[in-house]
Each structure stands twice: as C-alpha cells, then as structure tokens.
C-alpha cells in the first residue's frame, strides 16, 4: 500500500516508480500548507520500533524546580554525590507554625509589568500596599492550573491578575522561573565557587502527569524565555512528571521515613504507636535474603528497605495530591536494577487543595452574597489575599476528629467594605443567612464548626477517592500492594483519614512519607541524575498522521475514494505511530522516511493527529483531532545526490515529552526537527 501524508500534495514529486504517482488531496481534507508536501518512502504498516539507549550529557549539578499550584521550591545535588539532596534555603517571611522550605506560588509585578518579587516577599509586600495603590499592581497566585484548564493553550494565552489586568501567560511563568534560576545559581556559587557557570547545570521542571503535550511544551518555552537553557542545548532541561518523581524518591526511603496510616489509633486524629511497616513483609524479606540474586538486586538497585522487601514484579500506586490536581500513576518494580515500569497511563483530575479554597469562597457567597464577594475581590484585591491567608492557616489545622470550632479572621477592610456596600454589618448578614454552622464570635471573627470545615473538604476528597477506586478496578492494576500518598495536600489529616477509611478495607497499605510535601521535589532531583529509572511508560493517547492508501473496495468507505490518473486512493487514512495505553520503552523509536516534494524545498510540515481510541481508522473519525505539527528544516541541497532526497525521522514516545530527531540520508547530517503542539 502507498502511504502519502496528508499535507497538501499539489506538485508532489514522488519519482518514476509505477507504484507511486502525484496524488492531490481532495477538497476539504485536513492539510498543512500546500508548499510543504512530501512523500514517504516507508509503507503505511509501521516498522517494528527500535530501541535506542538514551544518551545524556554529563552535568556537574542537577537543579530541580517544583513549580506547584500553591507553593514552589527548588533543590539540587552534585553529580559527585547524587543522593545527597540539598534543599533550598529557608525563605524569608512565612507563616507562623508552617514549614517554609517552599514558598507560595505568588508573583508580583509593578504597575508597568516589571518583576518585583516572588513568594512570601511578593505576598507580604502586596498585602501591605495601600488599597488604592494595590489596584495598579499585578499580583498572580495559584496560576499554574490556568494552563492545564485552557482548552486552546497557545504562546499568546493570557493570565488575569488579581486586579483583573491581563498579560501573556508565558511572561508570567518566565518571571517565576527566572527568579528560581537566579536564586539557585546564587546559592550554588556560594557553596561551590569553583563551579563553572556554562553547561554545568541540568535543570528539571516538574509538571502533573495528566498534563497534555501543549502544557508540557509551554513550560519548556517559558524556561527558554527565562534563560534556564537555550534551544540549542535543549537536553539541559528535563520535564519530570510529578507522581513519577515521587515514586523515584519513595523507592529510596527507609522504614523509619514512612508512616503507615493503618497504624492510627482508632477514634483519634493522631498517629498511635506506629506499627512497623516491615512486620507485614518480614517473610518476604527473609526469602529475599536467602537468594544470592536478590542480595545482588538490593545492592545494585540502591533501593530503600521497603523496596528491598518487595519482590520484582510487585505493583504500587502513587497518588500525588497537590494544590491543583490529583495525579495517579501505577508502577511495577523491575530487577535487576530497580527500574520502574508504568502499568497504566497516568490519570487524575482537578481535585487539588484549591478545591477547598473554592468551597470556602462559595460559602462566603452564600452568607454575604456572590455579587459582594466578586466586587470585594475586584476592588480590595490585597484584602482578599489577606482573607485567603487566614483561611489557609485554619484549613491546615482541620482534622477528622477535631472537637473545637475554628475562628477565621475577617480583614477590617472586608467588614468596613461590607457595611458601606450593604448598609448593615457582617454580624447581621450572618444572622440573616441560611448558613447556621457559621457564627460571629465575640472576638470579631467568623466561628466555624469543625463539621462545617470538614464539609468544605468533601467534594475534593470524594473526587480523589473516586479516582483511586476507579484506577484500582482496572485489570492492569490488579495485585497492587501499596498506595503512596504524596504531595502538599497529602499533609491534610482530613484527606489521610478519608483515604485510609475508604481503601484500608481493600487490604491496601496506605503509606505517607514523613517529608510528604517535599517528596516530588527531592524525587525530581534524583530523576535528573538518572532519567532512565522509569524504563517503560504508557502512551496516554494514540498519535499518527493522515495518509493516502490504495483504495480497497469493501474495506474503505466509498466517500473516501479518490481517482487520479486511473489509480484509486483512499483519503484521510489515520496511520498510527503509537496507540493509547501502549507500553513504550525509553529510547524506543518509531521511524519514518520522507522526501521533499520539490527540489530546493527548505521546510516540511506534517500534521499530527491524536485521539483516545486505539482503533481509529480515519483522521475524520469522531474524537480524532489535529494536535500538532512535525516540522523539518532542510539545508540547501548541494546537488551531489540527484533524485529523491530522503529525510529519515525518528520519534520517541516513551519519554516524558514526545521527541523527534531527523537526518538527511544522502549527507548523513542532522536535520533540525521539532514537534509543535502550541500552534493549532
């Protein structure tokens, strides 16, 4: 069968072979620019993918940036001692009683859009601005999820500041990443003055595993704009998937660094006398110790004690519960080096801690009126930030067995603004509202019952549990022994209790690392030192291109028939590169060879299509959509090789990003190749 990519093939040069001829695309077919037509040299059936060991340049230090929805931070380790992870310095500012090895994901820009500050400094400075002056400053918080929720994400996507003003999202993210770059490099220079500046740092950025390719590319583009790396040295930047990073870190932990939630004392919200995790694995450990091969496995893999007790083939789930999303991944431990294999594509949804904040905002709307809350946020943005800080402090103290009520301070500007807008005070509003579990305390605060606070958690917590239960019901996930609960939201006693209550009866051991809020950050550093630790991943979608194949009556729909020069072709055939949920090894390549349509052609664009189904036949099928374009930038031909010019492209789907390389076969020179997911 002949496979001709769908790209507008007018004037296409295919050669003298009787099996191939110029074939125009029919009107209305999806295509790219007409000047970019090419013909493939390979048939439509995919050749067997070839695995190639990924090559990584040596770096002196790995710096990982965990860019979170609610809080962010960085950590690093030197190649000479990769497992000695150095956490960033404690941040200036912070909230009493809250560990601040991370800083809030808050960015403050001056009225003219210049960078002012990030983190606690930005939050506190903005809080102290005069209300009238604050209206002109651009304050961004919890903005990471905006690029996840954007259905048409591009490099021109805008973000809205608290005061309603907008600016390009790419610039907002670049400001934040530039801040971390400068902060980290300054600390590295102080710790190691002899460290060369150029090409010495490998940067790692964390993203949710459920993010699609456009969002991942967006973060990479922001890193380029921030100056972390250049496009020419793209391999200096790795994108790490957050639950994968957590998994990489958890496999290094020892038993005393983990909490088993099943050891909570009944009826209490605190950990009881901790039951040793290894009691349930003692027999397996003894069996492993009797095996010489297993002893070698333990030494070579460098895994922690809990993993040493697990046998090759054991499966576990990592639930990354962050500020914006819950991310679930399922891994299998492999011998002999403790590598990881993904068993089911990453899943999850927008069930992060910000859902609790949204529930609180909706509660305020029920009491004081949604129109008032909207007006207050717009006209008193700094005071609104102050109110959210007060709620965050009380949210952290919520627990399933807490007995006392919680007091939440209302800023004076809220009380004063409400009286001016409504003509009566907030106490009157509380008495008149239908919300009977929130009262006005004698200290001038909102007094909320612990049951009411826990109710704010329920929609988000229920969504997390439903996602976990749906995952555990999948046949690929049967035999799971452990669930690791990680991420900033996993610190919540409400969430921990709900997950243990719902899943403990299934015989699933729910385990929480002691430094649960830093698990992803530390794991990202380890991932940067050894990116090959996750050996096999599952493709989340089916990817391919549109081609023309020879028409087969009875198999192809009549409306897809195209007759040209007496030959019958089927249009819009979906040629698959990789299928949804297909296991793809790291370094495994899907290769295709193409030739330009015209001599002297300098650029080739090939439309890429994707869908969730595994069995799509045509690019016009329901659910199939154009998701990106493969671009090949060609150097002028020297004319030494007359005839067709073959360009061989190799695509990798087993990494955290889809990657492509290409080579001009006649000259054996590399061709600049890229996949753009942001220009649709």
UniProtKB/TrEMBL annotation:
Region annotation Disordered: where it falls in the sequence: 1-54
PANTHER family: ALPHA KINASE/ELONGATION FACTOR 2 KINASE, HEAT SHOCK 70 KDA PROTEIN 12B
Superkingdom in the source lineage: Eukaryota
InterPro entries reported for this sequence: ATPase_NBD
Transmembrane regions: none
Entry protein name: Heat shock 70 kDa protein 12B isoform X2
Keywords: Stress response
Tagged with keyword Transport: no
Keyword check for Signal: no
SUPFAM superfamilies membership: Actin-like ATPase domain
């Amino acid at each position: 069968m002949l496979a001709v990519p769908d790209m507008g093939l007018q004037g296409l040069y295919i050669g003298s072979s009787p099996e191939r001829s110029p074939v125009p695309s029919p009107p209305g077919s999806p295509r790219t620019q007409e000047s970019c037509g090419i013909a493939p040299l390979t048939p439509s059936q995919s050749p067997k993918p070839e695995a190639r060991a990924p090559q990584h340049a040596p770096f002196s230090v790995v710096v990982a940036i965990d860019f979170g929805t609610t809080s962010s931070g960085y950590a690093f380790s030197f190649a000479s001692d990769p497992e000695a992870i150095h956490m960033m310095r404690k941040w200036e500012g912070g909230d009493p009683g809250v560990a601040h090895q991370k800083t809030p994901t808050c960015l403050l820009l001056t009225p003219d859009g210049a960078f002012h500050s990030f983190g606690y400094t930005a939050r506190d400075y903005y809080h102290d601005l005069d209300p009238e002056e604050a209206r002109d400053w651009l304050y961004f918080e919890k903005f990471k999820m905006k690029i996840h929720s954007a259905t048409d994400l591009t490099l021109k996507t805008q973000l809205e500041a608290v005061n309603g003003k907008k600016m390009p999202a790419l610039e907002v993210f670049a400001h934040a990443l530039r801040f971390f770059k400068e902060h980290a490099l300054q600390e590295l220079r102080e710790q190691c003055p002899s460290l060369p500046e150029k090409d010495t740092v490998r940067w790692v950025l964390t993203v949710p595993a459920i993010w699609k390719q456009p969002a991942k590319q967006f973060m990479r583009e922001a890193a380029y704009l921030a100056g972390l790396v250049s496009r020419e040295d793209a391999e200096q930047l790795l994108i790490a998937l957050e639950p994968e990073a957590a998994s990489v870190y958890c496999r290094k932990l020892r038993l005393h660094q983990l909490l088993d939630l099943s050891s909570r004392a009944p009826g209490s919200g605190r950990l009881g006398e901790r039951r040793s995790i290894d009691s349930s694995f003692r027999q397996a450990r003894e069996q492993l110790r009797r095996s010489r091969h297993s002893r070698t496995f333990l030494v070579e893999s460098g895994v922690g004690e809990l993993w040493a007790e697990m046998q090759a083939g054991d499966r576990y789930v990592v639930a990354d519960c962050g500020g914006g999303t819950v991310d679930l991944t399922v891994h299998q431990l492999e011998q002999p080096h403790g590598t990881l294999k993904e068993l089911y594509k990453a899943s999850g949804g927008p069930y992060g801690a910000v859902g609790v904040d949204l529930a609180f905002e909706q509660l305020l709307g029920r009491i004081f009126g949604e129109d008032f809350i909207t007006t207050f946020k717009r006209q008193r943005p700094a005071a609104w930030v102050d109110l959210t800080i007060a709620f965050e402090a009380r949210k952290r103290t919520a627990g399933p067995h807490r007995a006392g009520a919680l007091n939440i301070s209302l800023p004076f500007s809220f009380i004063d603004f409400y009286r001016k807008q409504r003509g009566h005070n907030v106490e009157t509003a509380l008495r008149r509202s239908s919300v009977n579990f929130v009262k006005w305390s004698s200290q001038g605060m909102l007094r909320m019952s612990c049951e009411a606070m826990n109710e704010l958690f329920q929609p988000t917590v229920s969504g997390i549990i439903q996602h976990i239960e749906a995952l555990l019901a999948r046949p690929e996930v049967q035999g799971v022994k452990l669930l690791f609960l990680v991420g900033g939201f996993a610190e919540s006693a409400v969430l921990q209790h709900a997950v243990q209550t719902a899943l403990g009866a299934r015989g699933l051991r729910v385990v929480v690392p002691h430094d649960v809020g830093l698990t992803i950050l530390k794991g990202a550093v380890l991932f940067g030192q050894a990116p090959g630790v996750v050996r096999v991943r599952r493709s989340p979608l089916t990817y391919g291109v549109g081609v023309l194949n020879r028409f087969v009556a009875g198999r192809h729909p009549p409306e897809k028939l195209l007759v040209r020069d007496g030959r019958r072709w089927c249009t819009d055939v979906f040629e698959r590169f990789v299928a949804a949920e297909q296991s793809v090894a790291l370094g495994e390549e899907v290769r295709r060879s193409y030739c330009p349509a015209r001599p002297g052609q300098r650029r080739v664009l090939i439309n890429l299509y994707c869908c969730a189904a595994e069995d799509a036949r045509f690019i016009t099928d329901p659910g199939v959509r154009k998701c990106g374009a493969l671009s090949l930038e060609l150097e002028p031909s020297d004319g030494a090789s007359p005839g067709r010019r073959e360009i061989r492209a190799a695509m990798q789907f087993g990494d955290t990003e889809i990657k492509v390389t290409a080579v001009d076969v006649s000259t054996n020179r590399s061709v600049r190749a890229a996949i753009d997911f942001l220009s649709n």
